[in-house]
Specification:
Layout (H helix, E strand, L loop, with lengths): L2 H9 L2 E4 L17 E3 L5 E7 L2 E4 L2 E3 L2 E4 L9 H7 L3 E5 L2 H4 L14 H10 L3 E5 L31 H14 L6 E7 L2 H7 L8 E4 L6 H9 L10 E6 L15 H12 L4 E5 L4 E2 L7 E3 L6 E3 L3 E2 L14 H12 L18 E4 L1 E5 L4 H4 L6 E3 L34 E2 L2 E2 L3 E3 L7 H6 L19 E9 L8 E4 L6 E5 L2 E6 L8 E4 L7 E9 L8 E5 L7
Parallel strand pairs: 6-7, 6-12, 7-8, 9-10, 11-12
Antiparallel strand pairs: 1-8, 1-9, 2-3, 3-4, 4-5, 13-16, 14-15, 17-29, 18-23, 19-22, 20-21, 23-28, 24-27, 24-29, 25-26, 25-28
Helix pairs in contact: 8-9
């Protein structure tokens, strides 16, 4: 790929994938649209003319919604029942390349299967391929190991060293998808000036706050597209909002949200609901934001429910789903699928855990001895391949967000030297703890409440395979830490800060028989060493 085209790709934030005929081949970047064979005769294509989207020879109004394959058990039939004809998703680079040239496209990272399912259900897909995605996702989707490269890379720039790594990543990703390229930017002159790419082949969309008057923003959008090439589209119609630790859970009114969507669709404009389906920041992938300055750090919750019409667990029996569905029905060509029922969520009850070991007692098992690093001064976590933290910034001018001890440590006026650094891995954590039996039987009358990182373990049984269902783990009474279910990292808990008290556990993580829960509590445990598996989320801590 020529360097000039590589630079053009860097700026692309939005790609529409026509899944009428899924193919792994990468079309030429100069092609303004892609033709597909139509089994009913003629050609199938998606293009822009007369300030409209066109699909298969007819005007097409995009009524889409964000559903992130890496945050949910894909429940696309629920999106269909909402009335959506298009699914939008990001592609997080750090999920697919967690370490240099280690490519992951299995499990929750299986983007190809997700696209094929969307194809089978008749959706178009708006694929936001990055490499930067924001999305309240750790480092905006950039792999943390980029921050360990010296000399330091200039992220989101034309830095040749940065572009070379983007080129390598997209050389793996793009052959797996079928892209048609557009861009999307904020609905102001400043963001459009910086984000758009002039030319017939590139379409510029906008996004803006829910409730804003859409018409003047769509008129501004026209100035950044060629005549007749500017169908009005808000690529992020916000159905809710994000929440940080320490804040009250964000909620928005269902009726006002539906009224704002009605106003956009009545202008024959297109809209993509952000989010259509809430999700979960599993593992260490939740991001963070800043306020007025770099010190005003705000870490995102593990839950990415977003007060979306389809909730984190797939719940659709709520006012927002009903109100938005009623609006979308008016602009749909046919009747919508039947209203779905909620998934059944299990209440497995209390689980007693026992202390297994302190973090320091099993440090030798969690860290490969050959990876122990001795340095005169501490280095960043990214420099040694350690990514656990409270979440790297995903947006704004302070995006280059290294973690760890980033300067000399001074004690009583003296700089401390000769550090030994232990990169730890939580892979196969349950088996590691079983092979290092330091288990202490818990005495509820004598629980050690001193603040020290400790592992705790418990288990619960599911007596029949038909009883394997979604659930939530309540961490009321605990302080702050990380939880694993059957070796899967379900995310951070921090009830002391709130508002999130529970972590979502999707059914595919569970199994018939014994299920093992491991907790790394960083401070003080529950006084009775108890967890509770409940049937509803709780944002009241």
């Amino acid at each position: 790929m020529a360097s000039s085209r590589r630079f053009k790709l860097l700026l692309i934030l939005l790609a529409i994938v026509s899944l009428a005929s899924f193919s792994p081949a990468l079309p030429a970047l100069s092609s303004p649209h892609r033709l597909h064979s139509n089994p009913k005769g003629g050609d199938r294509r998606f293009w822009i003319a007369d300030d409209k989207f066109w699909k298969d020879g007819e005007p097409f109004q995009i009524i889409g919604g964000d559903l992130h394959y890496f945050r949910v058990v894909p429940r696309l039939l629920r999106a269909k029942a909402l009335g959506l004809n298009t699914i939008q998703t990001y592609v997080p680079w750090n999920l697919h390349e967690p370490s240099p040239e280690k490519w992951v496209f299995e499990g929750m990272a299986d983007i190809e299967s997700f696209l094929k399912i969307a194809q089978e259900l008749g959706f178009l897909v708006m694929l936001r391929a990055g490499p930067y995605i924001c999305a309240e996702w750790d480092l905006g989707g950039f792999p943390a190991w980029l921050l360990g490269i010296e000399p330091a890379l200039e992220l989101r720039s034309s830095d040749p060293a940065f572009l070379q790594l983007v080129d390598r990543w997209w050389g793996i990703l793009l052959p797996k998808i079928l892209p048609l390229l557009y861009t999307t930017d904020g609905g102001s002159k400043n963001t459009l000036d910086k984000g758009t790419i002039p030319g017939e082949e590139v379409y510029s969309a906008v996004d803006f706050s829910t409730g804003e008057d859409p018409w003047p923003i769509f008129q501004l959008q026209k100035k950044y597209n060629l005549p007749g090439k500017s169908p009005p589209l808000t690529a992020e119609f916000y159905t809710g909002w994000l929440t940080h630790w320490g804040e009250k859970i964000a909620v928005t009114d269902a009726n006002s949200t539906a009224a704002a969507l009605q106003k956009i669709l009545s202008l024959n404009a297109s809209a993509v609901l952000y989010m259509a389906h809430g999700g979960t920041n599993f593992g260490f992938f939740s991001g963070a934001n800043t306020g007025e300055n770099e010190k005003d750090y705000k870490a995102d919750l593990t839950s990415y429910d977003y007060d979306a019409p389809i909730k984190e667990s797939g719940d659709v029996q709520n006012l927002k789903f009903k109100a938005l569905r009623n609006v979308i029905q008016k602009y749909s060509r046919g009747s919508l699928p039947p209203f779905p029922t909620n998934n059944e969520i299990a209440r497995y009850g209390p689980v007693k855990v026992s202390k297994v070991a302190s973090l320091f007692q099993v440090l030798h098992a969690l860290c490969d001895p050959i990876q122990v690093i001795e340095t005169d001064q501490p280095v960043s976590m990214e420099s040694i391949g350690q990514v656990e933290n409270l979440g790297r910034l995903n947006y704004g001018p302070y995006l280059y967000d290294r973690k760890g001890l980033l300067s000399a440590v001074i004690l009583d006026g003296t700089i401390l030297h000769r550090w030994r650094l232990y990169p730890v891995s939580f892979n196969k954590l349950s088996s590691i703890l079983r092979s290092n039996p330091i288990m202490q039987v818990a005495d509820p009358q004598n629980v050690d409440m001193t603040e020290e990182p400790r592992f705790y373990q418990g288990s619960f049984f599911i007596d029949h395979k038909n009883h394997v269902k979604d659930t939530y783990i309540s961490f009321r009474g605990w302080t702050k830490g990380i939880a694993f279910v059957n070796n899967f990292n379900i995310g951070r808990f921090w009830p002391l800060m709130g508002p999130q008290c529970t972590l979502y556990v999707p059914a595919p993580i569970l199994q018939h028989g014994e299920n093992i829960v491991v907790i790394l509590e960083l401070h003080s445990p529950h006084p009775e060493l108890m967890l509770n598996l409940v049937d509803n989320h709780d944002f009241s801590c």
